[in-house]
Amino acid sequence: MFDDFMTRATLGGMGTALAAAPLGCFVVWRRMAYFGDATAHAAILGVALSLAVELPIFAGAMVIALVMAAAVTLLSGRGYAMDTLLGVMAHSALAFGLVAVSFLSGIQLDLMAYLFGDILAVSRGDLAVIWGGAALVVALVAWRWSALLTATLNPDLARAAGIDPRREAMVLTLALAVVVAVAIKVVGVLLITAMLIIPAATARPFARTPEAMALVAAGIAVAGAWTGLQASYHLDTPTGPTIVCVIAILFAASTLLTRLRGVN
Fold this sequence. Notes:
264 residues, 12 helices, globular, ABC transporter involved in vitamin B12 uptake, BtuC
């Protein structure tokens, strides 16, 4: 079964969707979209590091994503507005990563595959990384769900309950770094944030509880990944961007449906 490239691509897309969607709910609730962008854009620097020292791409991308997240956390509140700081760091990290890649000599590199994904080239080893990372993220979020939710809704209430909001923020940072690392192969560093945010935003009008929103977001992400892959195959379009386009169409449809229900 795993010898068929479409089967591997489908499983890779679904694994990435399952990892990104529940975490994306917290990104939406905490208004961390720019934070996700900064972490994802920094991953291209991790790709350059991995290729330079002959490490797995997953390891380099995750290390740099964690470093970026820690740097943002340390620099926040030091005289710059958070959106300004994240904007500077996101685009600077991407630029430094692209420049670093240009210095790699003797290495054949398809830069577009890392920027926009190359899901059709997913191997068995990539599947192991993607599903292993997805299992880690889902297990981590499920384990810390109550604490994460409390810290997200009301940090003061979390402290009163003995929950450290900074610790929960670090849990989210770790999970985000893992998602960025596993999603590079599927949608690339420029589109990872879309996989985090759009399914969660699409699910929001149809869920009455946080748990329901996470489940609906996961279903939307998986459906979008499968539909986008099929559409890309038949229309001969770039797969990663096509997946994001499908999920964006679902978001537009959900927004229109919500407006129509409100009018009626």
